[in-house]
Amino acid sequence: MSGDRRLLNVRSEIGKLKKVLLHRPGKEIENLTPSLMDRLLFDDIPYLEVAREEHDAFADIFRKNGTEVVYLEDLAAEALIDDEIRNKFIDEFIEETKVMSDKKKELIKEYLLSFSSKKEMIEKMMAGIRKEEVGSNIKSSLTDIVESNYPFITDPMPNLYFTRDPFATIGSGVSLNHMKTVTRNRETLFSKYIFKYHKDFKDAIIPFWYDRKENASIEGGDQLILSNKVIAIGISERTESAAIEKIARRILGSDEGFEVILAFDIPKKRAFMHLDTVFTMVDYDKFTIHPEIEEPLTVYSLRKGEKPEELIIEKETMALREVLMKYLELDDVRLIRCGNGNSIDAAREQWNDGSNTLAIAPGEVIVYSRNYVTNRLLEEHGIKLNIMPSSEVSRGRGGPRCMSMPLYREDL
Ligand SMILES: NC(=O)NCCC[C@H](N)C(=O)O
Predict the structure, then answer these.
(1) What positions constitute the catalytic site (predicted)?
(2) 99 lines ligand 1 (CB under 6 A)
């Protein structure tokens, strides 16, 4: 990045990745129980020790390829530059838990302030606070008595290792997302403090395209930067059209150079959770896809109008291939089908994020080892693979793209 003073720069899905944000799975994973899984958006409980080994192997792939890796937990701790900010952060964190009683709030604060290391305090916030850690017998309100069997004072945040979703780097700016679910919206507080107070960002002029307090939801897994002109956003289980409209006005009205936002209407179901669950870019003209999105799709193109704030919106029904050829101005594109078109392999590998690859350079991606049918096909299409172990991290229903947030990619 020598000679380049931009802190954040993402103008494609495939430009050489120079800096990426990860979160190493922590104790929050061990605070998952079967009865919490549904609300906390997990389908199984990963074995933490192995999940960490897999995640470390993921981080090593970046480092070996010249990508700087930074961790959410480190940046969040470093953002708490003085007592005033630490206090403010703790208060806001507690405000966003469902704790009602003032007495309990005081005890949580006291407990969090008792950590001498800021990183350990952050990790505790992420992991969740079990009842027995903070005055287990407090029954100062009716809710405490009624909910006395609930094991946590503050819930764990097991989805944090999917750093793709709470915020997204778009151009030189940040979409600080408002997440669909309460559990994931709590995660965005860490990003808020990082961009506001961390020494690397606090004095920078960073455009914010969205804010976590806005009322419509949008998640990073739905935000794909197809080129320096075209952004794709899924209208999905997690992202609402109202949010896309707002963000489009701001991005298209800025001087970042993006010309069109394509809103892809995808099925609202868990197997299609985000646009990147069913579709990722692996090279200039190659994409991995869930075979079910090959059928004609409804796509809305949003462009800037003549008047300030005006948007021109056009609805089209087209096959994905045609949409990509048209908007990326390509003569041809190759759609690489997850599971190589076999319905059983496709369904199995799709469930384990076979289409959720992360490009670290044009034509070079990180993939899960378990999706070997799709991986073979990618190789046959000339894609260079970096294969990571994937038994445990995959249980959270996200792949290499979901587990990473690029902060800086070289322009193509
Ligand atoms: N971009 C993504 O598809 N992220 C995966 C998120 C998985 C997580 N368990 C969730 O349901 O939000």
Answers:
(1) 402 (amidino-cysteine intermediate)
(2) no
